[in-house]
Write a structure and sequence with these properties.
Chain lengths: 209, 209
């Protein structure tokens, strides 16, 4: 049986369909994340590398038989929630994204627990400084958009020490709001404490506040 | 015939072996980048998604039959050049990395031309602010490490406007050097001009200068 697929040209989708698609695409992207990791770390013989290369090209061709013209963008459910499955930090369908899962206590504190492996390396054994920025930019952006959608205006990162690959915690809170601008502060930490401090100014497009 | 593989426990590798491994792993990672893009954009039927999912899991298992315990880290050639094929922004073997190729005029200017597609999306149709930070952090870090290896101390990004997905240009130059610290400024641009400005202070570990 041929089932309906997510089409960006369709309108908002109902929650059953949302759950069904999540259960379909989530595991696919998760398997691609594992493949990304294995591609970096493998030490198998050349002929196996070439064999896998051919298999991946064939799998990609199957997926590309019918695809969106451009990027995923943003869709909405019938209840008005948005989802950006192609997003580089939180996208369910994007193997570049860890993906971050952002939680909130409902009282202004936002956080995420994430384990960053070999694919996020910068200096040996450490998370790339730019990946620390990716995590903090997204978390601070969500935190600063709680009352109105805002985009990054400025972001300042202070790297106190290297962030080891492995389990990490990031958290953020709004420091102040001034009309379209929200100032948000946050940190990235390992088990020993803070590794990176961040401050961001997030600004709503003129029309949206 | 069983060929030798990159092992992190091995010493520096000669240039012929470096070229051979580059030609083996480069195309593998490139095929995984295509797969990442297709995973985000595909609209094929559910049964094809499930079939591809199973194929990717099988391919990953083949690669994992023998692999590094941890991340790739950094290796050196016999001529003293280092390579970080697992790096999240420039890693040849890392499908998370576009990968950036950084060029220099030999007179202090460093730049990179990169096309960022669906896997780097933030707001619909735009590059994720954190991905802009990843590009600029790496480029500025290389620029600030020309005379001595330095790591990111602070990084400040000013987002002038959204950066469209597509072909982009980033460039950077050292503004000043003060012992272990280098101040570097750079920009990210599309065809219309600058989208993000960056300033970074990069610091050498105490022992290395």
């Amino acid at each position: 049986m041929k089932a309906a697929q997510v089409k960006l040209t369709d309108g908002p989708i109902d929650l059953d369909e949302f759950a069904r698609l999540k259960a379909l695409y989530g595991p696919l992207a998760e398997s691609v994340r594992e493949l990304v990791d294995a591609t970096i770390r493998t030490e198998v013989d050349d002929e196996v590398i070439r064999e896998v290369h051919a298999e991946i090209e064939a799998a990609t061709a199957k997926l590309r038989a019918r695809q969106l013209d451009g990027s995923f963008g943003m869709r909405t459910t019938v209840t008005g929630e948005t989802f950006s499955w192609g997003n580089a930090s939180v996208g369910l369908r994007n193997a570049v994204a860890p993906p971050l899962v952002i939680e909130s206590d409902g009282a202004g504190r936002y956080w995420t627990q994430v384990t960053l492996g070999a694919a996020y390396e910068g200096p040996p054994g450490l998370v790339h400084g730019g990946v620390c920025a990716l995590v903090l930019d997204h978390l601070l952006g969500v935190t600063g958009s709680a009352d109105a959608r805002r985009l990054t205006g400025t972001l300042t990162l202070r790297y106190r020490r290297g962030t080891p690959l492995g389990p990490l915690h990031a958290e953020a809170r709004v420091a102040s709001v001034d009309g379209r601008k929200a100032t948000v502060r946050g940190t990235l930490s390992d088990a020993e404490g803070v590794t990176v401090e961040a401050e961001g100014i997030f600004v709503a497009p003129a029309a949206s506040v």
